[in-house]
Predict the structure.
Amino acid sequence: MTQANIVRKTYSKKKMKKLNNIQGFVFSCFPVLRFAIFGFIPLVVGLLMAFLPMKFNFDVISAMQQGFTLNNFKEVLTDPIFWKSIGNTFYLALSWPISMIIALLVSILLTKEIKGKPFYRTVYFIPFICSLVAVTLMWNVILDHKYGVANNVIEWLTGTRINWKGDSKWYRFGLICMTVWSTTGYKIIILTAALTSVNKNLYEAASLDGANAFEKVINVTLPAISPTIFYLFVTGLIDVLQEFTRSQVWDRLGGPNSTGITMVFYLYREAFTYSNMGTASAVAWILSIMIILITILNFALSKKWVNYD
């Protein structure tokens, strides 16, 4: 090979490497650009709006001329409906342990040698991928006071009917039922995958020590899949704190005595019903701080019960 060919080949490699670097940079810009437009810029604007006197308008410039203020946060923190929305949100968090227990029991059964496991997994997972609006409307029919299937069964068993949408206690319980039905399938899939990776020798050792089935679950299964449970707990709690669709679709007014108003529902109503964008932005930041603090606390407490061995 002549020296000219060697130089030409070396130049070609450098040119190709430079072209690949440019292509990589261009493609990597798309997610960064998406975050900047739909993430970072709204974040900054929301922070500004939280400290601006914005009432019934979207004019950030004129609001900035009036100066920054804490009135939006004071208005939120002195509103009893806001504190009730926090209570409603954490009440709906009861759906997580209920769905988790059901998912764990079903997952353990699905690890056994039974026929049709792919079919069962698909059936359980379908509610999770369905539209929340469609699922809520379906449950609205099921829980209808006069014609709902649930009330027909309850009346046949007890002789009475439940006013799911008119009674505060039953309204929130109905939301929990919807949440459990929608989210259990996802937990089943994740837990089933975790259970299949548990070392079978641990169960054999437990059997030699005389452990029964319940003791194996407590002392072997749960510690082995504790990282998965922790992941589901953190993500599930964040999802609950962001609960909105089910409560808003079921009753756009927030249910009896505002028992269906969650924190995000409160935020939505302040922003798009009352046009208080400053107040809504303040609620968004309060919710964000709550999620961050709760997540940090969860990670700190996880050191006491999550086993990564």
About this structure: The first helix runs from residue 3 to 50. The chain has a mean pLDDT of 85. The chain has 15 helices and no strands. The radius of gyration is 27 Å.
